[in-house]
Amino acid sequence: MTTDLDPDTDLSFTRTLAAPRQLIWECWTQPRHIPHFFIPSPHKVTAVDIDLRVGGRFNTTFEVEGNVMDNRGVYLEVVPGEKLVFTDAYTEGWKPAPEPFMTAILLLSDAPDGGTTYTAIARHRNPETRKSHEAMGFFDGWGTVATQLEAYARGLI
């Protein structure tokens, strides 16, 4: 899967996290870690179900202001320690989702001083969906998640 960005349909940011790449990978791929960073506080992740393989499930349940939100997805690409691609366009068994929103691409590489260069890409099916996601607060929300991830991972060191 190519990671060339399309400015009409993709949102992206890159940040250096002060935690080792392998630990950031573990946080993203082990269910016990996801509730600690995956959604901006004070919202909560209440359930996680991961089957870490291409075609495997990446399901989460959120509680946002008293509302329960189920997110069903599937992994499209898994490159251990380097790349994780998942989407809500399908669920496990390659069943199409009725209202897909995006595909997420996470890229991890070693940064100086033992940190991680962390790139998050949200790929949308059309410019309108991209604009909607940006207006919903992509940069603040995903930036908050990256900050929470870094703090959580550093607490595991």
Automatic annotation (TrEMBL):
<feature type="domain" description="Activator of Hsp90 ATPase homologue 1/2-like C-terminal">
    <location>
        <begin position="19"/>
        <end position="153"/>
    </location>
</feature>
<dbReference type="InterPro" id="IPR023393">
    <property type="entry name" value="START-like_dom_sf"/>
</dbReference>
<comment type="similarity">
    <text>Belongs to the AHA1 family.</text>
</comment>
<dbReference type="InterPro" id="IPR013538">
    <property type="entry name" value="ASHA1/2-like_C"/>
</dbReference>
<protein>
    <submittedName>
        <fullName>Activator of HSP90 ATPase</fullName>
    </submittedName>
</protein>
<dbReference type="Pfam" id="PF08327">
    <property type="entry name" value="AHSA1"/>
</dbReference>
